[in-house]
Amino acid sequence: MACAPSLAVYPCDYCCGSHRIKLRGGGPALSWLGPSSGLFGAPLSSSNFPAGSYTAVDSICAALSSVGTGLNLNIMCTTKGSITASRDASKLKDGPDHLLVLVHGILASPSDWIFVEGELKKRLGGNFLIYASSSNTYTKTFSGIDGAGRRLADEILNVVRETESLKKISFLAHSLGGLFARYAIAILYNQDNLNKSQHENVINSSIGTSKVACTSKLGKIAGLEPLNFITLATPHLGVRGKKQLPFLLGVPMLEKLAPPLAPIFIGRTGRQLFLTDGKPSKPPLLLRMASDYEDNKFISALASFKSRTLYANVSYDHMVGWRTSSIRRESELIKPSRRSLDGYKHVVDVEYCPSVPSEGPHFPAKAAKAKEAAKIASNTQNTAEYYDMMEEQMICGLQRVGWKKVDVSFHSAFWPFFAHNNIHVKREWLHNAGAGVIAHVADSLKQQESHTFLAANL
């Protein structure tokens, strides 16, 4: 018999004492999707809800107040009625109003999404326009995260121009595609619809400024309302550092050789993933992407989405480590459950992390010296020093928005070593162990869509 689901509420040392909420164990399927409003996938703020209304935030607050009582709280939710209402409403429209952009990873193509696209169409219905990006196929992924991000942004704008019925936008990206998508949304982010007083509420999160969390949900992406930003096994912190690129096995010599060799094989993208791009005096691209840097509103664009979700392989992924794909420190990794959530095979854990106020990422003179040493005279010591600094600064920047973190384990799959491709079912005949992950993604999208429809009609 499956154990009853419990809600574990605990203070996080890295969250300045703020609470994280974690769901583990078995239980009814929909109970594992989490709050439909994106309370943790989006920054926690009372301004997100109408005054006087009773929302899921009240339930969470009640749970937090009862931490000391030792109670286990069951979270149950059903969206059957609201989903039906959403489907009925979609029939009244001339075309789909929600654009879901699928972004593939390195050396890949839109064909990688054949299974996912089919499943999402079956589960989500005609209200979604599911579009698999094709602007960065195969070796085009070597031209740099910035170059690929610009091509993706142009491609999305063309789709939006050609489909007048669109009102909302979401992203589902695999591996390197998640970084392409993060760059693209910064280009597509638009604050033109905001008045002056609203602009004052939008944070200034340039490197080294105000100690705040990103609580703004203002602005649009490509002129559309941003709803979901979802990544599957994406190296958000790059691949430099111990076991961030698992196939190197954590061997110091291999990890020392990888950064200078990466650009030879995967070009500009390799330098950016190993944080060796640009002059020593300039922050690496991935650090810049953890803030609003100059004219690029990277973190504000992320904050504009109602929900942000990270799916991460806890093991057997030889391309992207658990830490970098889940934006966690080494000390935050705990032994994962080996039991799948009911209805979602291989999905083993869901953690809700609210935004964490901080001064944002820094690139001090010490970091510039460490970067120069890592590029010119790379050795185990200066490489580790540089990456440790960069990893901590990237985490501080990216944690200024809230995330839902979903851990996936293919330890019981027939081919567990294909975890990196299993997680998005690249080829159905070989990687179908990830079908439960895709079901979880689809149901989460459906639940968020239903919540948005109800909120708009209250």
Protein topology:
Blueprint: E1 6-11, E2 19-24, H1 56-65, H2 80-90, E3 98-103, H3 114-124, E4 128-132, H4 145-162, E5 168-174, H5 177-188, E6 189-190, H6 196-199, E7 220-221, E8 225-232, H7 252-273, H8 285-288, E9 292-293, E10 296-297, H9 298-303, E11 307-313, H10 322-326, E12 347-353, H11 365-376, H12 380-398, E13 403-408, H13 419-422, H14 428-431, H15 435-456
Parallel strand pairs: 3-4, 3-5, 5-8, 8-11, 11-13
Antiparallel strand pairs: 1-2, 2-12, 6-7, 9-10, 12-13
Helix pairs in contact: 2-15, 3-15, 4-5, 11-12
Can you describe this structure?
By secondary structure, the protein is an alpha/beta fold. The protein has a single domain (6-17, 25-456), classed as Rossmann fold, CATH 3.40.50. The protein has 15 helices and 13 strands. The protein has helices at residues 56-65, 80-90, 114-124, 145-162, 177-188, 196-199, 252-273, 285-288, 298-303, 322-326, 365-376, 380-398, 419-422, 428-431, 435-456, and strands at residues 6-11, 19-24, 98-103, 128-132, 168-174, 189-190, 220-221, 225-232, 292-293, 296-297, 307-313, 347-353, 403-408. A nine-stranded mixed sheet has the order 1-2-12-13-11-8-5-3-4, sandwiched between helices. Strands 6-7 form a two-stranded antiparallel ribbon. It is globular.
The overall pLDDT average reads 77
- DSSP strand content: 5-15%
Q: Would you give the CATH topology?
A: Rossmann fold
Strand order of the largest sheet: 1-2-12-13-11-8-5-3-4
Counting structural domains, the number is: 1
What about the largest sheet?
A: 9 strands, mixed
Morphology: globular
Approximate helicity band: 25-40%
What is the strand tally?
13
String of helices and strands: EEHHEHEHEHEHEEHHEEHEHEHHEHHH
Q: Give me the CATH architecture, please.
A: 3-Layer(aba) Sandwich
- Gyration radius, rounded: 21 Å
CATH homologous superfamily classification: Alpha/Beta hydrolase fold, catalytic domain
Number of helices: 15
- Poorly predicted parts: 1-19, 27-32, 35-92, 193-206
Coarse structural class: alpha/beta
What is the CA-CA span between the terminal residues? 40 Å
